[in-house]
Amino acid sequence: MNELALKYGCNPNQKPSRIFMKNGSDLPVEVLNGKPGYINFLDAFNSWQLVKELKAATGLPAAASFKHVSPAGAAVATELSDTLKKIYFVDDLELSPIASAYAKARGADRMSSYGDWVALSDTCDAQTATLLAREVSDGIIAPDYTPEALEILKTKRKGNYNVVKIDPNYTPEPIEHKDVFGITFEQGRNELKIDEAMITADIPTKNKEFPAEAKRDLLIALITLKYTQSNSVCYAKDGQAIGVGAGQQSRVHCTRLAGNKADIWWLRQHPKVLGLQFVDDIRRPDRDNTIDVYISDEYEDVLRDGTWQNLFKVKPEPLTDEEKKEWLAKNTGVSLGSDAFFPFGDNIERAKKSGVQYVAQPGGSIRDDNVIETCDKYNMTMAFTGIRLFHH
Question: Each residue of 65-89: pLDDT tens digit?
Fold first, then answer.
């Protein structure tokens, strides 16, 4: 089959809609369940490329959680601490490596991952499907599914959950095209290989140390950025993206947005947050929203209007600004990638507030000296990759 009709395009008024192969060959995907739409397939194909490259670069199973053609999270399979299992709400599950990767990809930014598209580098097993079965998600793409996993996934969304199988050996044409306003654009595919050599070849800072974990996390950040709508910045730690800032016109706004997400990820590990006692019947999305509210300044309003009684068994004491500041200062060893050069040192100043120690960016700004100087002020290690990673 070389084409698949879709219900509509990005919006219901955009008809007709389909995906097809111009060269007449068969599509490299098979829909095993559901009826994926136009945006679903955009998410599917971008996220599949991301996890495939992460697996190739790190040798570890990889997963991604996508929303509107940008990753909300991406991760490789490493062992989860008890704290991470708790904040990702998987401490009651047995997790395979690929399930662990998805738990991390989904859990880093649960607000953004609500209703996500899932991508797995490896076969979807029953443990991953069991995890997915209780989350709000639009669909999944993977190279294969165990029979048990497929049966579990078919129970989601009243049997309409989108399950797509992709040929892992599919290789696209080297030249790609896109039509905009009736005009066809053509470019060579971005086949750039991101590896450790890119990180270690040019280190202009005084500190030139990149531990193995930092190299891994920078690979995750850079490969994530390759499939994130630009401008984009990504913070990574513990084998996963912990904050992605996508599609901003100003780079420092990307750095702030991603940094704020990284801060929330870390604050969710605060003992006060871990000790929150929710009412028994709270829905998972409401619980996630409530945690974000508790961490933010909005919690004072919840206390004033009394709505905390609908959320918690016991009235939680606020997380004070001083407690937040003290806890955030404990987050260290964070890695940061940028899809284009930092034009000012203010990006580094903001990154430092979220525990960044390792940076990878293309370099090439007329103010590189200022950025290097700012890194040196904080004893950060920064690599100039020489490669821009714009994605549109």
Answer: 999 999 999 999 999 999 999 999 9
What is the average per-residue pLDDT within 1-14? 92
Tokens coding 102? 């998805």
- What is the maximal distance between C-alpha atoms in the chain? 64
In degrees, rounded to 5, the angle at the alpha carbon of residue 300 between the alpha carbons of residues 294 and 305 is 110
Strand 183-188 vs strand 175-180: parallel, antiparallel, or unpaired? antiparallel
Q: How many CB atoms lie within 10 A of CB 9?
A: 15
* CB count in 10 Å sphere of residue 279: 13
Encoding tokens for residue 83? 């704290």
| Residues, the chain | 392
Confidence of residue 40 (pLDDT cuts 50, 70, 90): very high
Pick from 97, 59, 93, 95: nearest CA to 78: 97
3 state SS of 360: strand
- Rounded to whole angstroms, how far apart are CA atoms 275 and 272? 5
Determine contact, residues 340/231, Cβ cutoff 8 Å.
yes
pLDDT one-digit tens code per residue, 154-193: 999 999 999 999 999 999 999 999 999 999 999 999 999 9
Q: How far apart are CA 235 and CA 219, in angstroms?
A: 11
Confidence at 23, pLDDT banded by 50, 70, 90: confident
Are 101 and 62 a contacting pair, CB within 8 Å? yes
Q: Residues 314-321: what's their mean pLDDT?
A: 90
Hey, which bits of the chain come out as E strands? 3-6, 17-20, 29-33, 62-67, 70-76, 116-120, 137-142, 162-166, 175-180, 183-188, 232-237, 240-246, 334-338, 356-361, 381-384
**8 A C-beta contact, residue 341 and residue 364:** yes
Give 271's contacts (C-beta < 8 A, 6+ positions apart).
none
Question: Could you tell me which residues are beta bridge partners of residue 232?
Answer: 246
Task: Let me know: does 98 contact 75? Beta carbons within 8 Å.
Answer: no
Q: Are the CB atoms for 19 and 27 separated by under 8 Å?
A: yes
Catalytic residue annotation: 67-68, 231, 392
Model confidence pLDDT, tens digit, residues 202-224:
999 999 999 999 999 999 999 99
